[in-house]
């Protein structure tokens, strides 16, 4: 079933947060999810080890450049969704994961540095599309946006993306304490106590709209043929 990867060559763009939000939303709808944790910080693996768990989610963190495409392809046969959280760089794991993704989500914060990191991934996708001779569907999600106002930096990033005809999701991921707190308390947003974490209701609404938009794209994307771009071990 669909493979959705999160990539931005710039660190700290919000990939891990966006990947976990999607995984927990999908699992809350009763689906089986496999997350590939290719982030060297292993935040999702640490989250998975917390006492409060999320039913239906399994996490794989033993990954190599040579094995990742096969691992992803196998997982996609047994899971309803495969979600890949990638490192904030360009390497063989990133290239191989993108080459077998049905959808690549590029999280971009409202900063020109993030937009440049996103542009690197867009260029890499173009190169990979030539190698695998298939389109790799991709979109941008704006992250850590301000709930109340659109900052000048965010507006500049939006203009930059729309000038290049890039598919930008309607729903940005807003800056919310609840999204950070998932990594501390474990589980999904449904498990967070509104008395302990502020803005939980708003966070749930935001995550649900965001996940619906990602899933709509992932489900309508044509299924990928298996392909291993680079077999060189790290
Ligand atoms: N929507 C959000 N609301 C609040 N905090 C956020 C949000 N998105 C990200 N953060 C915070 O920003 C920091 C970076 O986010 P995250 O780890 O998701 O980025 P990343 O792209 O995966 O980083 P890396 O490249 O290091 O893997 C973290 O401290 C995270 O808690
Ligand atoms: Mg990360």
Automatic annotation (TrEMBL):
SUPFAM superfamilies: P-loop containing nucleoside triphosphate hydrolases
Pfam families from the UniProt entry: VirC1
InterPro entries linked to this entry: DNA_Partitioning_ATPase, P-loop_NTPase, VirC1
PANTHER family named among the record's database cross-references: COBQ_COBB_MIND_PARA NUCLEOTIDE BINDING DOMAIN-CONTAINING PROTEIN, P-LOOP CONTAINING NUCLEOSIDE TRIPHOSPHATE HYDROLASE
Name of the protein in question: ATPase involved in chromosome partitioning
Annotated organism of origin: Roseibium alexandrii (strain DSM 17067 / NCIMB 14079 / DFL-11) (Labrenzia alexandrii)
């Amino acid at each position: 079933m669909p493979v959705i990867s999160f990539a931005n060559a710039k660190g700290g763009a919000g990939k891990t947060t966006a990947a976990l939000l999607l995984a927990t939303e999908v699992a809350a709808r009763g689906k089986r999810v496999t997350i590939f944790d290719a982030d060297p910080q292993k935040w999702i693996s640490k989250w998975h080890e917390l006492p409060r768990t999320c039913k239906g989610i399994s996490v794989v963190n033993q990954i190599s450049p040579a094995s990742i495409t096969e691992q992803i392809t196998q997982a996609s046969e047994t899971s309803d969704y495969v979600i890949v959280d990638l490192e904030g760089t360009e390497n063989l794991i990133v290239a191989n994961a993108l080459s077998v993704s049905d959808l690549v989500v590029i999280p971009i914060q409202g900063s020109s540095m993030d937009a440049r990191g996103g542009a690197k991934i867009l260029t890499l996708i173009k190169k990979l599309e030539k190698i695998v001779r298939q389109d790799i569907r991709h979109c941008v999600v704006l992250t850590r946006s301000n709930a109340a106002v659109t900052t000048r930096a965010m507006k500049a990033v939006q203009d930059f993306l729309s000038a290049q005809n890039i598919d930008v999701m309607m729903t940005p991921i807003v800056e919310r304490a609840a999204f950070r707190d998932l990594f501390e308390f474990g589980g999904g947003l449904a498990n967070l106590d509104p008395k302990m974490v502020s803005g939980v209701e708003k966070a749930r609404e935001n995550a649900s709209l965001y996940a619906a938009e990602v899933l709509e794209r992932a489900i309508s994307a044509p299924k990928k043929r298996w392909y291993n771009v680079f077999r060189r071990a790290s």
